[in-house]
# Entry
Amino acid sequence: MGDRKPLHVSHVQATIRCSKKKHGLQLRTRSGGHDFEGVSYISESESPFVIIDLANLRSVQVDVENEVAWVQSGAIMGELYYEIAQKSGTLAFPGALCHGVAFGRYISGGGYGLLFRKYGLAADNVIDAEFTDANGRILKQKTNGGRSVLGYSWRRNYRVSFLVATPSFKTKSDYVKKPIPEIGFQGIWSQLFEPEARGATLNFVAYGGKMDEIPESAVAFPHRKGNLYKISYKIRWREEDNVNSERYIAWMRRFYSYMKSFVSKSPREAYVNYRDLDIGKNNEDGYTTYAQMSSWGRKYFKNNFDRLVKIKTKIDPENFFRHEQSISPYFG
Ligand SMILES: Cc1cc2nc3c(=O)[nH]c(=O)nc-3n(C[C@H](O)[C@H](O)[C@H](O)COP(=O)(O)OP(=O)(O)OC[C@H]3O[C@@H](n4cnc5c(N)ncnc54)[C@H](O)[C@@H]3O)c2cc1C
# Structure
């Protein structure tokens, strides 16, 4: 196992080229390592892979005069809030509730927080981005027609390692468009009193406001007008209780199934930053059909899914960057 933390993007470019061309190794990219299914650092496939870990690429440059900031992917939200507060008493960024979430991935999945009903998602406030593609080239992307106040850039740091992890929670999400009737809540209460549910939490996040004004196609995140709230379901158990993990996960699946009639339908929408591999996975060989991918792609991205498949087909036709639930190029 090797472990390196370069500070410059050129090292990252070299790693991508080396992994792909010289060693034929897969890559996983990790910013903060908070992925709910751990796909940034674990794999269901037995093939070894390289982790590009962005933990050291975390600079935050705040330009108060122009009201923009350049943030590297590995910076956590708390670092951005702190740097802005150091320089200004009036500027802010509509970021995550949790200060420990890393910037690059939080934002690419949408990114909500306490200010999102007034200013939109974090992703709605991005004006520019830099990417490294599967050939190790830097691509630049201007976004959002300059209507936002802060920008960000993605750079990649890397670390080479092979890891095993034992998650002790399971998460799912839903969007609610009509009030849940009282009888629905009675069913919720009774299930929350079941023995497996002692570590269960339900979070209701109100939508509306600015979120109703931004078109569904503005960024990849599509859950806009018409949502009353999002629910996130989480069940936790102690590590020493991992032998019983299937019981807790089964409870979560039963509960999710119960909620079906009270939440969005066709598709049953879900938040991509609350990744849930139950709703679908890629084939291990890296070739997943459009129809297979649609099972989770439409839930996360609705009609924006087609656009994402087109972009992936253009930018990464060999599907070099992939994980259990990544978007594949169009393979038919
Ligand atoms: C305690 C906690 C609080 C949270 N609070 C919020 C919240 O308030 N609002 C909200 O919207 N979400 C919240 N989330 C969800 C969070 O946004 C997601 O879990 C997000 O994926 C975490 O980003 P990360 O960089 O830490 O994850 P990672 O595990 O590092 O990455 C997640 C995924 O993104 C990929 N990835 C990471 N960096 C890059 C990159 N630079 N380029 C390409 N791919 C990349 C990884 O390969 C992986 O597939 C929270 C999560 C936790 C655990």
The mean pLDDT is 88. Residues 28-36, 39-40, 54, 73, 96-98, 101-102, 104-106, 109, 111-113, 154, 273, 323 surround flavin-adenine dinucleotide (CB under 6 Å). The chain is about 25% helix and 15% strand.
